[in-house]
Design a protein that fits this description.
Elements: E1 6-10, E2 13-15, E3 23-26, E4 29-32, E5 40-42, H1 44-59, E6 64-71, H2 73-83, E7 90-95, H3 104-116, E8 126-131, H4 142-149, E9 155-164, E10 170-176, E11 180-186, E12 191-195, H5 207-222, E13 225-226, H6 256-268
Parallel strand pairs: 1-6, 1-8, 6-7, 7-13, 8-12, 9-12
Antiparallel strand pairs: 2-5, 3-4, 9-10, 10-11
Helix pairs in contact: 2-5, 3-4
Length: 269
């Protein structure tokens, strides 16, 4: 395509999965202990959608990528030092909470509002990318609500592959039950694509891309709009880590049926 796409990727930071997370009850509700001190990474599903956006933009001259991120401004700055070296994009930051205790409805409203304000965004060429789930906000509905707020009716979930056909239509492979795919086709943008993991590798670091991105990222972070995502309508009775339980018993020559029955009985207890 000669005009290319306008690709908006929604993705934010999450605590590094190698860190031990401890929930605490703060004055404003549940939070993570020492959350601002925890190392952060780009949400894995969002990262894949960003890499897919870069791959698509490379094949479609004239395309442009925006990364819309809701998170603590200082933490976003640290994260961008690494992410900015992967692919070229323009950052649209929102200064607000990025914990898993925020409401998806409020998050979607903040993201859609930020996308609405992107200058020179062509809705007729818009592809809204994001993860089908999140390592912190795993409600699985945020991207659908952002799409609805933007008036995007063609929505595709758990996508592993996107192919642009010769006639300009978009062909998707969506995950369904049984390890199979549903093949979906739409005539073209606008469309919302919630990505699964696909098969693209992580792009190597490119310092030149990083320097080019950071020239625009730093001023954008300084002008980041506050997005106090409300949690007033949510009540948490308690917040604790899942209890670990292990019961091991060695039995020889047990049949598959006996093992299955014992597992079912143990679960029912």
């Amino acid at each position: 395509m000669s005009t290319g796409f306008h690709i908006v990727v929604c993705g934010s930071l999450v605590p590094d999965p190698l860190q031990t997370l401890a929930p605490v009850q703060g004055p404003a509700g549940p939070a993570l202990k020492n959350e601002l001190m925890l190392p952060a990474v780009l949400d894995p599903f969002a990262a894949h959608s960003l890499y897919e956006a870069a791959n698509l933009a490379k094949k479609a001259p004239g395309s442009k990528i925006w990364l819309v991120s809701l998170g603590n401004k200082a933490k976003l700055q640290q994260l961008m030092m690494t992410v900015a070296q992967k692919v070229p994009f323009e950052l649209v930051p929102l200064d607000g909470p990025a914990s898993g205790f925020t409401d998806s409805f409020e998050v979607a409203a903040a993201l859609a509002g930020a996308i609405d304000k992107i200058p020179n965004l062509d809705r007729s060429r818009l592809l809204l990318f994001g993860g089908c789930a999140s390592a912190s906000r795993d409600a699985g509905v945020t991207m659908q609500m952002v799409g609805e707020r933007l008036g995007i009716l063609d929505q595709f979930l758990a996508v592993d592959e996107l192919k642009v056909e010769e006639n300009g239509s978009l062909r998707f492979l969506e995950r369904i039950e049984g390890g199979r795919y549903q093949v979906s086709v739409c005539s073209g943008p606008p469309a919302m694509v919630a990505w699964a993991t696909g098969n693209l590798p992580e792009p190597p670091n490119n310092p030149q891309i990083g320097m080019q991105n950071m020239r625009a990222i730093m001023p954008a972070l300084q002008k980041a709009q506050p997005a106090p995502v409300a949690t007033s309508g949510i009540t948490f009775a308690s917040v604790t880590l899942p209890a670990q339980q292990r019961q091991t018993r060695i039995v020889k020559d047990a049949s598959v049926e006996e093992i299955a029955k014992e597992i079912v009985a143990w679960i029912k207890e």
